[in-house]
C-alpha cells in the first residue's frame, strides 16, 4: 500500500489515507497528552513502543476471536489497519475503582469491582467526553442498539482475555478504554490498546505501570511501558 494524505490527527496518532480506500495507516507519534490535551509532552521511543504493543495485543485479541481493524506493522511507528466508520463513543470497563469513577461517585480507590463496571462516554473534547448511556447512543444515531450490544459483548470478552494475559505477567488490569467502528456491516475493534488507554498495576506492589505515571507526574513513563512489554514478551 501507498501512504497518501493525512485524514486526521489526534493527540497521539496521525491517520493517513492509502491508495486502498478500505485501508488506513496509523502513525503512533511520541506525543503523550492528558487532561483534554492541556498537558502534552514528547517521549522518545514512545510511538514505537505503543505501535508494537498495540500490534501484540490486537493479534492476541484476533486469535481469541475478536474482530479487529489491525492488519500488520509497516514500520517502527506505523501500522496498516482496516478503514472503519468509527462510532463516536468510548467503551470503558473497570475492574478496580480509581480515576474518574472515584471522583464522580465519591467511592474509595482500589476496590475490587464485581461485577466489573461498564461505562460509555461520548467522544467530544469540547464537552469533555461526557458519560452517556445506550439510549443517548441510539436516540442520537451514534450507533444502533444492535451495535451497542455488540460493543458491550466484545468489551467484556476482551476483559476476560486481557485480565488473564496481564495477570500471567504479574499485572492487574484495572480499567481500559476501547473504540469500535463499522466495517462492511460488522462491529470491529478500532483505535488502539496501549498503556495510554488502560491502567495496569503491579499485582504485588500496586505500582502504576501506565499513563497515570504521566498524568500524575510520577516520572519513568517510557521505562514503565518498556517494563510491561518486557514482562509480556512483546517484541520491541
Ligand atoms: O479517566 P477515567 O478513570 O474515566 O479512565 C478510565 C480508563 O479509560 C483509563 O484506563 C483511561 O486511561 C482510559 N481513557 C482513555 N481515554 C479517555 C478517557 C479514559 O484512554 N478519553
TrEMBL record:
<dbReference type="Pfam" id="PF01259">
    <property type="entry name" value="SAICAR_synt"/>
</dbReference>
<protein>
    <recommendedName>
        <fullName>Phosphoribosylaminoimidazole-succinocarboxamide synthase</fullName>
        <ecNumber>6.3.2.6</ecNumber>
    </recommendedName>
</protein>
<comment type="similarity">
    <text>Belongs to the SAICAR synthetase family.</text>
</comment>
<dbReference type="InterPro" id="IPR018236">
    <property type="entry name" value="SAICAR_synthetase_CS"/>
</dbReference>
<dbReference type="InterPro" id="IPR050089">
    <property type="entry name" value="SAICAR_synthetase"/>
</dbReference>
<dbReference type="InterPro" id="IPR033934">
    <property type="entry name" value="SAICAR_synt_PurC"/>
</dbReference>
<dbReference type="InterPro" id="IPR001636">
    <property type="entry name" value="SAICAR_synth"/>
</dbReference>
<keyword id="KW-0436">Ligase</keyword>
<dbReference type="GO" id="GO:0005524">
    <property type="term" value="F:ATP binding"/>
</dbReference>
<keyword id="KW-0547">Nucleotide-binding</keyword>
<dbReference type="InterPro" id="IPR028923">
    <property type="entry name" value="SAICAR_synt/ADE2_N"/>
</dbReference>
<feature type="domain" description="SAICAR synthetase/ADE2 N-terminal">
    <location>
        <begin position="7"/>
        <end position="231"/>
    </location>
</feature>
<dbReference type="GO" id="GO:0006189">
    <property type="term" value="P:'de novo' IMP biosynthetic process"/>
</dbReference>
<dbReference type="GO" id="GO:0009236">
    <property type="term" value="P:cobalamin biosynthetic process"/>
</dbReference>
<dbReference type="GO" id="GO:0005829">
    <property type="term" value="C:cytosol"/>
</dbReference>
<keyword id="KW-0658">Purine biosynthesis</keyword>
<keyword id="KW-0067">ATP-binding</keyword>
<comment type="pathway">
    <text>Purine metabolism; IMP biosynthesis via de novo pathway; 5-amino-1-(5-phospho-D-ribosyl)imidazole-4-carboxamide from 5-amino-1-(5-phospho-D-ribosyl)imidazole-4-carboxylate: step 1/2.</text>
</comment>
<dbReference type="GO" id="GO:0004639">
    <property type="term" value="F:phosphoribosylaminoimidazolesuccinocarboxamide synthase activity"/>
</dbReference>
Amino acid at each position: 500500500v501507498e501512504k497518501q494524505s493525512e485524514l486526521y490527527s489526534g493527540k497521539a496518532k496521525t491517520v493517513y489515507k492509502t491508495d486502498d480506500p478500505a485501508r488506513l495507516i496509523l502513525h503512533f507519534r511520541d506525543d503523550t497528552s492528558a487532561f483534554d490535551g492541556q498537558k502534552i509532552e514528547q517521549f522518545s521511543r514512545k510511538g514505537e513502543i505503543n505501535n508494537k504493543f498495540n500490534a501484540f495485543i490486537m493479534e492476541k485479541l484476533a486469535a481469541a476471536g475478536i474482530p479487529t481493524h489491525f492488519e500488520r506493522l509497516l514500520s517502527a511507528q506505523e501500522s496498516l489497519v482496516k478503514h472503519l466508520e468509527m462510532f463516536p463513543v468510548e467503551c470503558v470497563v473497570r475492574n478496580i475503582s480509581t480515576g474518574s469513577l472515584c471522583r464522580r461517585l465519591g467511592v474509595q480507590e482500589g476496590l475490587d469491582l464485581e461485577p466489573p463496571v461498564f461505562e460509555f462516554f461520548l467522544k467530544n473534547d469540547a464537552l469533555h467526553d461526557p458519560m452517556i448511556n445506550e439510549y443517548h447512543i441510539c436516540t442520537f444515531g451514534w450507533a444502533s442498539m444492535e451495535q451497542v450490544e455488540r460493543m458491550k459483548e466484545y468489551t467484556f470478552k476482551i476483559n476476560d482475555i486481557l485480565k488473564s494475559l496481564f495477570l500471567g505477567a504479574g499485572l492487574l488490569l484495572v480499567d481500559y478504554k476501547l473504540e469500535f467502528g463499522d466495517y462492511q456491516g460488522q462491529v470491529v475493534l478500532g483505535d488502539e490498546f496501549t498503556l495510554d488507554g488502560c491502567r495496569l498495576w503491579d499485582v504485588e506492589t500496586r505500582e502504576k505501570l501506565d499513563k497515570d505515571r504521566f498524568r500524575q507526574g510520577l516520572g519513568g513513563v517510557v521505562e514503565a511501558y518498556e517494563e510491561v512489554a518486557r514482562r509480556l514478551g512483546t517484541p520491541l
